[in-house]
Amino acid sequence: MDLKLFLIVTSFAIIARAAVLKNGIHIPTYAQICRRSQNDFDNCLKGSLQTLIQKISKDGIPQINLPPLDPWKVEEFHVKNSGDPFKIGLTFTNSQTRGFSNIQILGLRSNFDNDKKIELDIDFHNKQVLVNGNYLAEGYISDLPILGKGKYSGTITNVTGTLKIRGHVIQRDGEEYLQIDRTIMRPSVGDMKIQMSNENNKYPELSNLLVSLLNQFWRPIYEEALPYFQNISDELMTTRFNQATLKIPYNQLLPK
């Protein structure tokens, strides 16, 4: 469901070495040090990413307020479908997503041709992601009204895609820091199964029909909602990345 968020934390593998912030907080070494000038930098960072995922999946990095990978919590997001056979709006709240710690990094490509800019493309695959929380559904199936609320759970399998990170180097207080400008991701999904309880018993048969239709037509709904997810995830991921990259000098994040 909140697929567009599921690599937000992963690329913090650029913090793959010990670092000391200006306020004296020490960040421990989590993975191999990768230098931009080394010939095998892409393979090195790919391995560091994979190592970092395993090491911070439960605890995150408290020193820079980096949350754990599992579970990943999202307070609220919305999905709308305006095509046949139904028109409906879904609001999901208090969602928890599990399975991010199982992400496999398939490949990584970097571009440092300009010393003041950074480009990273990270290919990934996740065999299974589990999500649960609360939902509210309002809309119509043909001309029949739908009004449902309760608990939901979903199983999302074979998620693949490429996370693109773009940023530039800034000067602050005599130090260079990396500022992330954009994060772009459009994941593809192999399959999705959804279950919903219904606390509104006014239309129980229609609520059951809604779940059946969501499982049958999840793919066009996902495709229609994807631009919305891309917009919110770009903003969220960029903000989260900058919480870390603007705290640690660039020569410690990615030494030359």
- The coarse silhouette is elongated
Q: Mind describing the biggest β-sheet? A: 7 strands, antiparallel
Order of helices and strands: EEHEEEEEEEHHH
Overall pLDDT, averaged? Answer: 82
| C-alpha Rg (nearest Å) | 20 Å
Unreliable stretches (pLDDT < 50, length at least 5) are 1-18
Question: What is the CA–CA distance across the termini?
Answer: 39 Å
Determine the structural class based on helices, strands and strand pairing.
Answer: alpha+beta
Number of helices: 4
Helix content: 10-25%
Question: Strand portion, in percent?
Answer: 35-45%
- Tell how many strands the DSSP assignment holds: 9
What is the topology?
Elements lengths: L18 E2 L5 E2 L13 H16 L15 E10 L4 E13 L5 E8 L5 E25 L2 E29 L2 E11 L2 E9 L7 H13 L1 H28 L4 H4 L3
Antiparallel strand pairs: 1-2, 3-4, 4-6, 5-6, 6-7, 7-8, 7-9
How would you describe what is shown here?
Helices cover 24% and strands 43% of the residues. It has helices spanning 41-56, 204-216, 218-245, 250-253, and strands at 19-20, 26-27, 72-81, 86-98, 104-111, 117-141, 144-172, 175-185, 188-196. The strands form 2 sheets. Strands 3, 4, 5, 6, 7, 8 and 9 form a 7-stranded antiparallel sheet that branches. Strands 1-2 form a two-stranded antiparallel sheet. The longest helix is centred in the C-terminal third of the chain and has 28 residues, at 218-245.
